[in-house]
UniProtKB/TrEMBL annotation:
Transmembrane segments: none annotated. It comes from the Bacteria. InterPro entries: Cupin_2, HNL-like_cupin, RmlC-like_jellyroll, RmlC_Cupin_sf. This is Cupin domain-containing protein. Keywords: Signal. Residues 72-131 form the Cupin type-2 domain. Residues 1-19 form the signal peptide. It comes from Flavobacterium quisquiliarum.
Amino acid sequence: MKRTILACLIISGALLSLGCSINKNKKEMTDQDNNPIFPKGDKLSNDWFTGNAFLTPLLAKDKNNEFAMGSVTFEEGARTNWHTHPKGQVLIVTEGEGFYQEKGKPAVNIKKGDVVNIPENVKHWHGASAKNKLVHIAITNYEGDTNVVWLEPVSDQDYKDVNK
């Protein structure tokens, strides 16, 4: 009987220890998932963005690269104005959920892991959903010294309709 009780205590201790180890690893994975790949960056101008959006520049145009690359963080409800790119843009969503919409087409839900290839001179906007932040890497090509043409803001009603 004493051996059975002792064996049960040893097994219980081992299971408890294993459980703590699993919980610790689960916590580490959760903490890792909550840490962004890049810092939030500097606030972007509300001349071109509605809400709070931030940029961390990653790579500037130079003699080897005809594009710029940056990590853009959109807080809940933040979005770009309508705009175009003379040589296109690629978005790689690294966190959160939001929308991408081309003028005259329905908005598309985008989330972590999605890649959006935006053709040249297509009027569009992108940003976070009303309830989630969105982080994406933007790779924007240049034509001469121009990589973006900013247009009018996305109306609050149009944004509200997308978030239904």
